Amino acid sequence: MCVLLFVGTNYSTYFNTASLVTCIQNFPKSRGPTVGILKAFSGLTSAILTQIYAVMHTPDHATLIFMVAVGPALVAIGLMFVIRPVGGHEQARPSDNNYFMFIYSICLLLASYLVGVVLVQDFVQLSDRVVVLLTVILFILLVSPIVIPVTFILSPKPEHPVEEALLSETLITEANTLQDKEDQPKVILSEVEEKPEDIDSLPASDSRKRIAELQAKLVQAAARGKPHQWENFTLMQALVNTDFWLIWLSLLLGAGSGLAVIDNLGQMSQAVGFKDAHIFVSLTSIWNFLGRVGGGYLSEIIVREHTYPRHIALTIAQTLMAAGLFLFAMAWPGTMYIGTFLVGLGYGAHWAIVPAAVSELFGVKHFGAMYNFLTIANPTGSLIFSGLIVSNIYDYEAEKQAHRHQISALLSPQLLHNRSLLADGPLKCEGPPCFFVSSLTMSVFCIMGAGLSLIVVHRTKRVYAQFYQSINT
Predict the structure, then answer these.
(1) Is pTM, for the whole model, over 0.90?
(2) Residue 58: partners with Cβ closer than 8 Å, 6 or more residues away
């Protein structure tokens, strides 16, 4: 069982790595939206699979487990023959923004639809036919983005010679402009950095033209995501870099706090009087989804339009989480809904912003290794916040309440029959004190994480300014 749990828990790592690395290489000029959309659909899978399970409602659990075990492998094998890395300069199109907005619209529509389905199924007993119809509509929404590649296939292709001529002329002009900037960082590319041996034997005019063409290739390579001199770190090089550890610690404090809330959401809702935590679990999955989409979109606006570090968006997300955790601690009426929304939104934003930022600051060549090292922050944060802080404080408050009830029962034995806290089984804690201290503690840690993100912003703002100014021009 230990081996099965290990494999089952870590299977998503392989899918996340393959999809993120491939798509960042294909869309280096749209890293935020790309990562946000991929991670968003990954975060929504629990709600989608729950709906599929509601349609199957089969007592044969072995069949369901077999489908879950074999299905992902079949999908991966099938995609092996379809998905391939394509240079970013070949993928970039003027219509990309419109297509991203279309996918964003599908994401928002899908999230809204799932919220409605969850609420309806929670309060109304639906027939099997209605549940099947709702699931069919869900599948239609899921596959609707396929109209984008279909449109590319059916639309006439532009004339490549004209494109190449215009591109070459534009890039040579840009290369000459960049050459005059003294503060422009040096671009290092193994494919064009070697100076041809015959260039010195050419006439002066031809030699300058040849050099301009090589510089144009450098600019073109940078546009498709090739790194500058501060990029393409190996994992070992990243591990001795201060910025990398600041990002990791910020992720640990923010994502760890969010994961602790998700792990204990059932007990938190029951402690403040909700009998069924199902609705909060489902809503948190959807807010997590929206946080990933919104985090990628917002961070892309920040780096594209303002050439400012992507981590400023993470600072905003961690501040929202701190506010949500503070509301959990206060336990005012309605704060479970607002707190769940803020924490789910902020937690999801981490997984859209951090991978995109790491690929920009440390390169895409070893991005898979660095991304998976960063994900260690998630279980580490869960161990610290959920396993040590939240659980211990909850058990302490539960024991204290049980002790008070025992004293009351001795003074009035008839109360013994009305106290579930004295029944056999694990102790239960009721009331706002159960998560008051732990929620306030995690709120403070989220503020500390936001402070670390601001330090990353300060340390990398010059890098972002140089990198995105060179690309945008």
Answers:
(1) no
(2) 64
